[in-house]
Structures are given as structure tokens and as C-alpha cells.
Amino acid sequence: MANNESKPRKDLDESCVFCLIAHNRDEVTTVIKQDQELVCFSDIYPAAPHHYLVVPREHILSCRSLNRRNIDLVERMAKFGKEVLCEQGITDLKDVRLGFHQPPFISVDHLHLHVLAPASQISSYMEYKFTPGTDRFISEEFLRKRLGKVSSPAIKKF
Ligand SMILES: [Zn+2]
Ligand SMILES: [Zn+2]
């Protein structure tokens, strides 16, 4: 109980690059926007003129780790991504694509929302990675609907 320092922090995985970015411990990546819960930065392999990633500071593996209690989180991530787009000068919020990769098609094992704009300018050779409704990629909307059907694990009962 006394030795708090040796206790690994539950929300930070030292070997995870997105955790390091989310805790401002990565010197290479520029954080574009952040709040208490979320952090946004540019994708290192942009597939569109604007391509950002929104991650929670907490180390959550992927969209498969979420349940219905996390619908709000997904919603906040999407809102955050749209705010960044507006701040970056995107005015047509219909021509955007927001979504998640699904395991095993994830590059970093830390939940991240891809935010791309304009969607009509997603490069054709990278389009397959960001096509909604495939095994690889799902829209944030689709994820929220799917989570509505995933009951939360009954670990804690108050
Ligand atoms: Zn992480
Ligand atoms: Zn991804």
C-alpha cells in the first residue's frame, strides 16, 4: 500500500507511442488540440489533405474493447475531431470521414479515431484503408450503433 511508485499506472503503457503522445512525453509529435480526456495530432501517413488522430489519454486497446457505456466517449472523440477540422479551416463537414480501424487492421494498439478531410480527396491508393463498412474500417456512427448492442460487463454492482 505504501509503495505507490512501483505501481504501474493503469492508464499509461510505457511501450505505447500513443500513450507517450497523450501524456506529452513524445517530443517529435505536435499536439494540435487537447483537453482533460482527449488528444489530437496529425497522422504520420496522411491519406487526405487533413488527416488527424483523436486518442483518449487512457490506454484503451481498440474499438473492440468498448461497450455501451463508452458510446459517449466515441461521441466526444468525433466532436473533438470535428472541432479540430473547423479550427483548421474545413467548412464542409459533410465531406469528412471519421472512423476506426478494427483488429487486426490496427497499426497502434491504442484506440484512435481517424479524422479525414475532405473525404473526396482521400488518395485513391490509400482509400481501401478507410472505406467504411468493411472489416478493416468502420465509421464512428456505425460503432456507436454497434456499441448500443454490447452490454457492459457485469463486474461491478453497486
Ligand atoms: Zn496507449
Ligand atoms: Zn488506424
Q: Helices, strands, pairings?
A:
Elements: H1 17-22, E1 31-34, E2 38-42, E3 50-56, H2 71-87, E4 97-101, E5 113-117, E6 137-139, H3 140-147
Antiparallel strand pairs: 1-2, 2-3, 3-5, 4-5, 4-6
Helix pairs in contact: 2-3
Quick recap:
The protein has helices at residues 17-22, 71-87, 140-147, and strands at 31-34, 38-42, 50-56, 97-101, 113-117, 137-139.
Fold and architecture overview:
- The chain is α+β, with helices and mostly antiparallel strands.
- The protein has a domain at 59-147: HIT family, subunit A (2-Layer Sandwich).
- It has 3 helices and 6 strands, in the order H-E-E-E-H-E-E-E-H.
- The chain has helices at residues 17-22, 71-87, 140-147; strands at 31-34, 38-42, 50-56, 97-101, 113-117, 137-139.
- Strands 1-2-3-5-4-6 form a 6-stranded antiparallel sheet.
- A hairpin with a 3-residue loop joins strand 1 and strand 2 (38-42).
- Helix 2 (71-87) runs antiparallel to helix 3 (140-147).
- The longest helix has 17 residues, at 71-87.
- Residues 1-9 have low confidence and may be disordered.
- The protein binds zinc ion (2 copies).
- This is HIT domain-containing protein.
- Residues 17-125 form the HIT domain.
Care to count the β-strands?
6
Largest sheet: 6 strands, antiparallel
Task: Please state the overall shape, judged from the principal axes of the Cα atoms.
Answer: globular
What is the CATH C level class of the domain at 59-147, in words?
Answer: Alpha Beta
Helix-and-strand structural type: alpha+beta
What is the C-alpha radius of gyration, as a whole number of Å?
16 Å
Number of contiguous helices? 3
* Ligand names: zinc ion
Mean pLDDT across the residues is 90
What is the CATH architecture term of the domain at 59-147? 2-Layer Sandwich
Given as residue ranges, the uncertain stretches (5+ residues, pLDDT < 50) are: 1-9
